[in-house]
Amino acid sequence: MRRWRTWLTLRISTCERASHRGYGLFRRSRKALKAALPAGADLRQAQRDHLVVPERIYGKLIGTEAREIEEAEAIPIDVAIDNGWVRVADPLEYTNPVVLKTMDGIQRYIANAGDRPADEIERADPALGALAAQALSSGDVTHAYIYTTDIAAGEGAETVLGSEGYGDAVTFVDGFSFIDDLLEEG
Amino acid sequence: MSQTASRQEGEIVRDFLSIADLLEQPQLARVYAYLYREGEATVSELIDALNLSQGTAYTYVNQLTDTGVLTPTTDTQPQRYAAIEIELTLTIDGDREYTISPALIAAVARRATDDTIDSYIDRHGIHGLATALTHTIARERGETTHRLVADDLDMSELEAEVILQALRPIVREHFAVDDSGASLADVVDAENLDV
Lengths: 186, 195
What we know:
Strand order of the largest sheet of chain A: 3-2-1-4-5
Number of strands of chain B: 5
Helix content of chain A: 40-55%
Largest sheet of chain A: 5 strands, parallel
Oligomer: heterodimer
Structural class of chain B: mainly alpha
Largest sheet of chain B: 3 strands, antiparallel
Helix content of chain B: 55-70%
Distance between the termini of chain A: 35 Å
Structural class of chain A: alpha/beta
Order of helices and strands of chain A: EHHEHHEHHEHEH
Strand order of the largest sheet of chain B: 1-3-2
Number of helices of chain A: 8
Largest interface: A-B, 44 and 35 residues
Shape of chain A: globular
């Protein structure tokens, strides 16, 4: 399965409120994905595997906080899932040593950056990098893009995954400039 | 106490009160923030840029000049004005520390046009905004995340993210912050998305 080269990247989004704006990029990825898929492959399935959000972050996106968004009639992440371009990841496999090491490593990275104890660091941000570690270590995925507006989380994931030997396979994309670029493109 | 010392103290109190005026009146803050950003300007340039009436513009400029936060830069007409750099650190109860800086005044100035900042000040006060600004700087420098800020400020992650985003342009204008992470163009290139 999943042999269509670099198109099969895992995309993880924490663009949160603005996640629906990623649709522009998605549309262009879909074109590329379609061109790269073998004849008869399931495009919809491939799309769903393209943009993945960790369970822990999905929980936050649909939690009570999301209901504070006054202007939104529906929760953006659920609209994206219903439209079939985002998928909630399976639970993280903590029995996989790479997943566990990445989780702990990012937690320590964020703690060091802010000079505070590691146990104060909430596990939602480290889960982004841990999900990428899980996907990369499965061998099914060749490259992971990590979208987040928190530099500490993005750089932490790049650093820790780099030390696990995935330096060339992980890219942190700055969520703010990403959204600005998408809006500019209209 | 010597007369010089008491005069200096008097000036410090006067400066403090004039800065307090800036923080209380977003329109004054807008004038100060504009001049701080642009370097200097004439009153008619201020009128155009900030959409002020002539009378209001002269009142604001005179008030700010009298209190010492603006200074005329030319002797010839039309007069040009520049903003004086402000850096005031307040320590309250010996541990809480707030810094009043041009960045904070610029944040207050946005109150007139930014509902997020306006309602944040209503709920948390100017000192709350000063704290949020400090957290925004740390966040933009990769030293904290919006989830940690939410924890520190005892608010929801969404509320933290919303104010951090609103203050972000001010931080990027006033402080040296390196860009980090890849951009959309990098992703498009790496993945040949225009195929």
